[in-house]
TrEMBL record:
Principal localisation: cytoplasm
Cell location: Cytoplasm, Cytoskeleton; Cytoplasm, Perinuclear region
Organism superkingdom: Eukaryota
Disordered: region residues: 73-100
SUPFAM superfamilies: Actin depolymerizing proteins
Protein name: Twinfilin-2
Domain ADF-H: 1-64
Family as reported in the entry's similarity comment: Belongs to the actin-binding proteins ADF family. Twinfilin subfamily.
Listed InterPro entries: ADF-H, ADF-H/Gelsolin-like_dom_sf, Twinfilin
Keyword Cytoplasm attached: yes
PANTHER family per record: TWINFILIN (PTHR13759), TWINFILIN-2 (PTHR13759:SF9)
Amino acid sequence: MSPPVFIYSMPGYTCSIKERMLYSSCKNRLLDEVERDYQLEVTKKMEIDSGDGLTEDFLYEEMHPMEHTLKQAFAKPHGPGGKRGNKRLIKETGENGEEN
């Protein structure tokens, strides 16, 4: 049996900022009420822009993610082959700004 899933559909940029903030603040209140009143623990929360991307394959991959058997770590690039480059010549200046 699968755990309860909460799918949150945000209308995106078709509404004002004020409406989006109100929408987001109501989401947490709704989840709290559902968990308290119905004793359901919503373990998976998903946010989508529109219902177009909400397919059976998408839901299955979200609920049962494939574990990567071979995780590739960051490969640090090799430094220069033993040479640090040419030495820099620094000219010293005297008290009056004159070069020695």
